[in-house]
Design brief:
Oligomer: single chain
Pfam families: LacI, Peripla_BP_3
GO molecular function, one term: DNA binding
InterPro entries: Cro/C1-type_HTH (IPR001387), HTH_LacI (IPR000843), LacI/GalR-like_sensor (IPR046335), Lambda_DNA-bd_dom_sf (IPR010982), Peripla_BP_I (IPR028082)
Organism: Streptomyces endophyticus
Shape: elongated
Strand content: 5-15%
Distance between the termini: 84 Å
CATH architecture of the largest domain: 3-Layer(aba) Sandwich
Keywords: DNA-binding, Transcription, Transcription regulation
Helix content: 40-55%
Number of domains: 3
Largest sheet: 5 strands, parallel
Amino acid sequence: MPTTMTDVARAAGVSQKTVSRVVNGEQYVSAEIRERVHRAIRDLDFRPNNTARALLRGKHRRIGVISLGSAHYGPTTLLMALERAMQRVGYAFALAGTRDGRDRSLAAAVASLLAEGVDGIVLSEPVDDGSPLRFRCDVPMVSLGEPVELSGAASAVVSADGVADARAATEHLLTLGHRTVRHIPGPDNWFSARDRERGWRAALAAAGVVAPPLAAAGDWTPASGYRAARRLARDPDVTAVFAANDEMALGALRAFTEAGRRVPQDVSVVGFDDTPAAAYLTPPLTTVRQDFETVATRAVEVLTAMIEGKPHPAEHPELASELVVRESTAPRPRT
């Protein structure tokens, strides 16, 4: 038979309520009694039942994360950073995947996490199906993309400032003398892809440059960047390209090389994410480094403050990233 809280109370000579207070870290227990309870727990090898603790405390000490299940670098790195951030503050990690990120599947993921027992939810990288994100949810939620409308609980947004980051990448190319910058966008139903396109357009507009047509939309993969850049490589006026992530930039490097367009002598290329391989490409890739650890830590800080009824930022925190300049960008070639 497994050891119960009643067994611990009997061995320590205290009430079951006192054992519960010690297990849950509550105050109003003397040091001497606390030590007796801990000794009994060690002697009996007692393991507190998580469900029982949740009933006693009104908390599960678990945070749910809803993810698209993408295998791409950004989403997977963010998931790992979220799990580490939760562990640091004593919360377990529960994951619910959704294939398409649409309202119906998101609502199902929320329901599954609530049934499992969570104190709060992080919505990681939502996508847009053309309608506002609205849920019935009894626990707080933090979105890492767009605002969420909850009935039943509070919500907040924590995200990197993708517009500012993409603007910095585009401005870098313009300051090198390139007359314009072509953009290989990500899927248009991803909020992050749309933010990066907005940043690209904002940089061009501030420089008085009319935005050229978008390259063929990619799907975050090297193959899609390769296909888009093959078309761009046919135009001798293309001297600068900003791809919405490093994987598409990698495909673009291959396409320009095959077309006899040297990078960066003939064409400069900038990516986004700073994947581990970016510094080892030929040439090493100029890119935007996202601080996934800071985003995850801030998201968990905000969510746990909401869960525990503590003050949290009223504004939506937006966290800046860093432009890492390497050898794939250079001044515009002379004609």
